[in-house]
Amino acid sequence: xxxxxxxxxxxxxxxxxxxxxxxxxxxxxxxxxxxxxxxxxxxxxxxxxxxxxxxxxxxxxxxxxxxxxxxxxxxxxxxxxxxxxxxxxxxxxxxxxxxxxxxxxxxxx
Length: 109
Fold this sequence. Notes:
Blueprint: E1 4-7, H1 9-17, H2 20-32, E2 42-43, E3 52-57, E4 60-67, E5 72-80, H3 89-99, H4 104-107
Parallel strand pairs: 1-5
Antiparallel strand pairs: 2-3, 3-4, 4-5
C-alpha cells in the first residue's frame, strides 16, 4: 500500500533552507515513507506520543505521523537533533504544537 506524503509549511521551508546534498538525502528518506511508514523511524513518547522520528542525515530528523484512514503520512518537522539547544527539532516541534501554529496535534488520529 502506498501512502500519500504531505509536508507542513514549516517542514518545506526548513528543507528549502538546506544545502543541496543534505536536502536530497532527506527528501529520499521522506519519499521512502510511502512504503510502510509505521514500520520506519521510532515512536516518540511524552508530549510527542503519536509521532514518529526518522534519522535522515547525520543529526537531522524527520518527524511525522501516519493517518491510516486516509493512507496519509504527514511530515510535520525536519530539523537537527541537538539536545539542550533551542534549535533541537523536538523542542521546536513542542513549541509549535503548544502555540497551535499548525493543527498537527488535532489531526493525528
